[in-house]
Amino acid sequence: MERRVSCEVCNSSIGGTLVSVFPNIIMKVPANASMQEKSTIYESAVNSPREMSLLEFLKLGEKYREVIERLRACEDKEIRNKIKRTELPCATISASFTSRASSKAVEEKLKRYNSLMVLDFDNLEDPAAAKEELSQLPFFWYIGLSVGGKGLFGIVPLGTDDFKEHKVYFNALRKELEVFGYEVDKACCDVTRLRVVSYDPDAFFNENCEVFCIDEREEDDGEVYSSGPVPERAQDRSSRIELYVLEWEKRHVPLDDYQDWMTVGMALASAGEECREYFHRISVFSSKYSREDTDKKFDGFLQNTRSIKIGSFFYKCHEYGVIPDCVPHYESVGFPVEVLPGKVQRIVFDTHNFQNFPIDYIAPSLLFVACAACGNSTVIQIINGWCEKPILYMAIVGDRGTNKTSCFEFALGPIMGKDDEEYDKYVDAKALYDMEMCKPLKERNARIQEPDFCQTILSDFTPEVLVRQHKANPRGLIVYFDELIGFIYSFNKYRSGSDEQMWTQLFAGSGVTVNRVSSDPVKIDNTCISIFGGVQPGILKSFAKGKVQNGFMDRWIFAFPDKVPYPKLKENEIDDSVKESWSRIIERILSIPYEGKPNVLRFSPEAKAAYSDWFNSLSDQKNCGGDAFAGLATKMDRYCGRFALGLEVLAYGCGESELREVSLRSVKGAIALCYYFIGCGLKAQREYLSSPASDLPAIQRLIYDELPPSFETRQGVEIAAGYGMPERSFKRWLATSYFKKVSYGFYEKRFR
């Protein structure tokens, strides 16, 4: 499938692009014209275009304003078409040509491909409102009224210089715009398409628009939006089908519904002849099974599989509850508090009972702070040559007013207190330093150095300050934002380049260097910086925008509980001893020495075996669970090691571990945490990679929600009619990418 995957800012002047301009679509030929005169007129109309800049052509509308206004005021369709065809100049905007004669091949008459797409939006109810909405999309350079005044046309720069890819880019753009409820004239896919001059005094221009780029991929297995790699190879797909068929046989599920049986057969046939026997192995459990009839049907499916792909087979399997054990049933269940040491569990429940702290807010927060307090002091060795630091990129997802901030402040309290103490020390030391520097040079202490503020928690900083603070505090730093969207909005604020790339690298704990023209480079080789804060569910799309394909989002873990009730005032107050207990745990973790070389922990033999089994199981799950799951789980093997280290460190802080090795309990707890965060991650993913259906207009959204996953046309028409949508409009909607035609009169929703 084609999908917009990346954009770059268009820095060149699109308005200066040369286009081929022709006098008219159809030249008026006098009835008494001689053959020579007719030939001259034809040559002028077809084979002798003049070139002008795109901007000049668009401004031609002012010259032809009276003609255009006369056309728009005319009610007679034939007269309107005549004016359009004979009295107004036209141009080929997507490319320049030596001729527009249809008898010549494109290659023969192509002069220059302009890498521009012209899109028509016809018969809009409110063109002005549509223009305003479309102008929010970053890839439109121009949007203006069409010559008839009832539609719009837009111009988009493309990320290709090959005219043969023009249609591919058109299809990608068409699908992108369908998400926003806009239907594009399919004739726009023609690179030779003529654009008649128009007039719009309020046309939209964006010289800083983005180049529309796509990634050409095979159609994935029904998962339209995914963050994972390209679809699985044929052998992987075959193995996946076999797993599901075996599970079907194990459960003896009868496939008696005819439409479902047809869908399964067509889906399997799309994968080729080798799936014929799979179809028999599933069909045999139906009381209606006939080997001969099943073969005949499969023969027909092989000849015409329509639009049904193998993804529909997996979809139907899940619908019937046929899911292999190795395919995860990840759901956003509650945080597994039982994996925490007993003292920490009591803190979780006390803060929950007395301060209304949601468990899914406070428990992950405590885990995060323990890992951050450990910092560079201790690492876990997975295998020789592979060690993990306790670096976490954690976001707590919840609505405003649900006590997120209070949870954060409680968990971070011991570190905040330490920062306050360090600041007081810094102020005193800086005062002494300043006094010393006021002395004459000969009287100064030669050994005195300007003090550093050994800060741990940062919320407002430049990359240079970040690195300098880490140099002053080599144990590690915490980047904390009460609302993480502020962290995202700060990207590239202080430098050109990609902060996303920097944070992607820092996730691994590798070195970083910040260069400045005005100062010396700042370099640190052994980084340990964790990120923490909250994000509202409705902000997740903005949080993830443009950061999925580059791997940035794969590095985040989300604590995303179901609806959290707004807190009520409790009669009983929490005892100060709870806060003191947490402070003592963190103080003990902070007491783990770090002199530039970390303490290396290895798995106990039982823990190593458990981790290896889980690691291999996760690989199977990524192979079988689809691209969306694979993309989400791609960093969980690293996180499992980090969680295991964090739990072992927490146990040390509670006096339950001597930090000699990572125990089996810690590994089992880490695995449970991975399941929890994968479930929450899938929930977050559904938000930031939400189906285009969520962006439908209100009425269409209501209809879409009411439609069952699979339905007949008649059923859909009835549901739509209940909301006032005419049958004709509904059937036209069925032809868009929101639906998948299974067979004649039978459809499936593509999105949930």
Q: What do you see in this structure?
A:
The chain is α+β, with helices and mostly antiparallel strands and 752 residues long. It has four domains: 2-216, no CATH class; 234-319, no CATH class; 337-688, Rossmann fold, CATH 3.40.50; 692-749. It is built from 27 helices and 25 strands. It has a five-stranded parallel beta sheet with strand order 16-17-20-15-21, sandwiched between helices. The longest helix has 35 residues, at 404-438. The chain is globular, with a radius of gyration of 32 Å.
User: What is the total domain count?
Assistant: 4
Unreliable stretches covering 5 or more consecutive residues? 1-9, 216-236
The helix content, as a percent range, equals 40-55%
Structural class from helices and strands? alpha+beta
Which CATH architecture of the largest domain is right?
Answer: 3-Layer(aba) Sandwich
- Taking strands numbered 1, 2, ... along the chain, how are they ordered across the largest sheet? 16-17-20-15-21
Overall shape: it is: globular
Q: Tell me the strand percentage band.
A: 5-15%
Radius of gyration: 32 Å
Number of continuous helical runs: 27
What is the highest CATH level, the class of the largest domain? Answer: Alpha Beta
